[in-house]
Amino acid sequence: MKKGKEIRPHIGIFGKRNSGKSSLINKLAGQEVAIVSDVAGTTTDPVSKNMEIGGLGAVVLIDTAGIDDEGLLGEKRIARSREVIKTIDLAILLITENTVAEFEYGLIDEFNKLDVPYFLIHNKSDQQKLMADTILKVENELSTIILEFSSLNDTNVEPLVAQMRSFLPETAWKTGTLVGDLISYGDTVLLITPIDIEAPEGRLILPQVQLIRDVLDHDGVVVICKEREVDAFFKRMEPKPKLVVTDSQVFLKADASIPPEIPLTSFSIVLARQKGDFQNYLKGTPKIGELKDGDRILVLESCSHHVSCDDIGRVKIPRWLSNFTGKKLEYDIVAGLNQVSRDIHEYALVVQCGGCMITRRQLINRLKPAIDAGIPVTNYGMAIAYVHGIFNRAVMPFLSTAGEKADYL
User: Fold this and answer.
1) Cα–Cα distance between 364 and 271 in angstroms, integer?
2) Third-level CATH fold of 10-172
C-alpha cells in the first residue's frame, strides 16, 4: 500500500495551573519555547507550537490554560482549552502529588466522548514520587497508563516520546490516498482547473496541488487544462484519461465535455472521501431536495480567506441552493474552527467545505454535533453536483460495491 500524505499530529497538553505543562513542552523541544513561571495561570490561552521532536518527528504541541482557572475570565480560558480536544490526535494529562480529582475526571470524560486517546503524566516527581496506588488507580479505573516525569531529569524524555508514539493513531501520521486506489501505473488523470477571480495569484489552490502530488506518488500522469480548453484538448488527447477531476464551479461544463464512460468527480468530493464523513455526505446530500421555506443552512468553511464578490461558500452555494429549491432559505457562515453560535437543531442542513487546511479528526469533530442531532450534512462539491443534476456521476468513482452503485444509478 502506498504511503499517504504526511501530516503533523496534534497533541494537547492539559492539567491544572502550575502542573508543569509549559516546562514539559520545553523539555520535549529541547529549548524554551513556552513561558515558564511559578505564577499560576501564566498560560492564558491555547498556544500551538510546531516543532521537531527527536524520535517522534514533526508535531504540533498545544499548550493549554489550567483547567482549574478561576473567575469569569478563567471560565472562558477553560472553555477554550476544552475546545482544543476537538482538534487533537492525542491528549496528555498532567497531574501532581498523586492526585486525580474532579478537574481531571471532567477532561477524561471529554477525551472518551470524542474518542481521543490519552495517558497521564505524574509531573514534578522530583518533589513527590509516583505512588503504586496511583498507578493501580489509573490502570484499573481509567484503562490507560501513567508515567513519572520531572523536567529536571533528562533520562525520562525518551520513555515519554516512546509512549506518545505508541498512543498516536496511524491516522495522525498520514491520511489515505486521494485517488491512488482508482488508478494504475501510467494512467492519466485530467484536472480541469479554472483560473478566475478566486484563483490565487501565481499558484494553484491547495486541493489541486495535493491531488497532483497524490497522482505522482501513485505513478500516474497528470494533465491540467482550463475549462475553456478542455473540448479541443480532449479530442486529441491519447490515451484518454482514467479519471477526470474538475473544480466544482465548472461541473456542468465538465459534465458536457467529458464522455459518460469516463469517471468524473471534483476536487472537493475527492477531499470529502479522504477526510470527511463520506457516508453521511452520501445520505445527507439528497436532503437538499426536501428543504422548505424558512429553513436555515449552516455553511462551514475550515479556513480563513479573502472573500471575493463571487465567493464559492458565501455567495455561489447559497445562490445555487436557493435557485434549485425555489425556497426562501436562511444562511449562517462559520469560518475556521470557530464555534457555531446557534443551537445545531436550528439548522436543516450543514454544508462543509473540503477541509484541505485541517486534519480529518478536526473535520469529523466539526460535523459530529450535526450528525448526532440527525441534521443532514453535505460537502461543497457534493451539494454543487446535486443542484446541477450530476450527483450520481460525481460520486460513482468512489462507490465500492455493485449495491452502492445501484443505489445511485
Assistant:
1) 13
2) Rossmann fold (3.40.50)
Q: How far apart are CA 166 and CA 347, in angstroms?
A: 40
Check whether domain 180-270 has CATH 3.30.465.10, yes or no: no
pLDDT digits (tens, 9 = 90+) for 155-179: 788 899 999 999 998 777 766 789 9
Do 10-172 and 279-387 come out as alike in CATH topology?
Answer: yes
Nearest Cα neighbor of 15 from 86, 81, 90, 112 is: 81
Amino acid at 103: F
CATH of domain 279-387: 3.40.50.11410
One-letter-per-residue 3-state SS of 143-210:
CCCEEECCCCCHHHHHHHHHHHHHHCCHHHCECCCCCHHHCCCCCEEEEECCCCCCCCCCCCCHHHHH
How far CA 35 is from CA of 26, 28, 43, 189, 365, in Å, comes to: 9, 14, 8, 49, 30
Pairing of β 57-63 and β 47-53: antiparallel
pTM of the model: 0.73
Per-residue pLDDT tens for 284-306?
A: 999 999 999 999 999 999 765 44
